[in-house]
Amino acid sequence: RAMAARWAVLAGGNSSACPDGSAWVRDVFSECARDARDVASVVLGLVSIGCFAAASFPQFYQACKTGIMDQALSIYFLLGWLGGDLLNLIGSFLANQLPLQIYTAIYYVLADLVMLFLYCYYKAKNQSGGFGAPINTVFVFVFLGTVSTMSLLGRDPGVVQEPAVFQGRALLAAGEQEAGDTPFSRNEIIGFIIGSISSVLYLCSRLPQIYTNYKRKSTVGVSYSLFALVMLGNTLYGVSVLLKNPEPGQSQGDYVLHHLPWLVGSLGVLSLDVIISFQFLVYRGGKPGVPEERDALLGEQDEP
C-alpha cells in the first residue's frame, strides 16, 4: 500500500538556501526543486499520494456489495497493512514532518481502521460461533491504532524544527546530514530502522492474501481497483524517488542507500501485487469456494 519522493524539508523554508529552485515547490513543501527532474519528482509524489488515498474506497464498496469481506480478505493482510501505516505515522512525528505529511499518515491509519471495522462487522454477521483468536487480535490492533492516532492528533504538528523528509505512502523520515558528515545521522538511523520494519510489514501482508486467493480459487469480494491503485501509487513513488537529484555532495549510490527501505517496500510490494493481478485473471469468473460465502451471495440474490 502503501509511498512519493523523499522530500527534504528546508528548515523554515528559507528561500536563500534555494535561490534557483521552483518557487511553488519551495513555498508549499519547503523543498528545493532545482530543475525539471526535481519538479517532476514532486508532481509524481503528489499523484502517488492521491492513488494511495483513494485505494480503500473501491474495497469499501465491494465489501458492502458482496457482504463476504471476512472471507475475501485475509485478516493478516489487513493487520500487516495497519502495522506498516502505524509505523508510518510514528515515523512522521519522530522526524518532525510537515503537517500535510502528518495528516496524510493519519488518514491512512484511519482508512485501515475502517477496513478492519468492516471486516469485523461481516465476520460477526456471517458467523454465529463468536469471535476467534484472529478477531481478538483485530480488536487489539484497532484499539492500539485508535489510541495512537488520537494521541498523535492531540499533538501540534507545528513547525518543522529540523530538516526532515517525506515519502508519500511511506512517510518515514530522517534528517539530512551535511556533506562530509557520517553516512547516517541519529535521526536517519531511527527513520531507517522504522522504515525497514514498515517495508517488511507491507511486503509480508501480501503473502496471506495471495494464499487466501489461492485457497478460495476466487477473488470474489476483493476489489481489483484497490490493488490497481496501490500498484500505480507504488510505481509512481519508485519513479519519483529515483528521478529526484541527490543532495549536493551526495553520490547517487549514497542517495539510493538512504532510500533503500522505501524502494524495497514499494517495488517489492509492486511485484507481489503483480502476482495478485494474475490471480484475478486466473480466477476470473470463479465461484467462492467456502460454503459461507456461497450462502451469503445466494442470500443476496434471493432478496427482492
UniProtKB/TrEMBL annotation:
InterPro entries reported in the protein's UniProt record: LAAT-1 (IPR051415), PQ-loop_rpt (IPR006603)
Pfam family membership, one: PQ-loop
Gene3D superfamilies, sorted: 1.20.1280.290
UniProt keyword list: Amino-acid transport, Glycoprotein, Lysosome, Membrane, Repeat, Transmembrane, Transmembrane helix, Transport
Ranges that cross the membrane: 41-61, 73-94, 100-121, 133-153, 189-208, 220-242, 262-283
Mode of membrane association: Multi-pass membrane protein
Main location: membrane
One Gene Ontology cellular component: lysosomal membrane
Statement: the UniProt record of this protein carries the keyword Membrane: yes
PANTHER family, A to Z: LYSOSOMAL AMINO ACID TRANSPORTER 1 HOMOLOG (PTHR16201:SF36), SEVEN TRANSMEMBRANE PROTEIN 1-RELATED (PTHR16201)
Family indicated by similarity: Belongs to the laat-1 family.
Function according to Swiss-Prot or TrEMBL: Amino acid transporter that specifically mediates the pH-dependent export of the cationic amino acids arginine, histidine and lysine from lysosomes.
Name of the molecule in the record: Lysosomal amino acid transporter 1 homolog
Species of the source: Nothocercus julius
Lineage: Eukaryota, Metazoa, Chordata, Craniata, Vertebrata
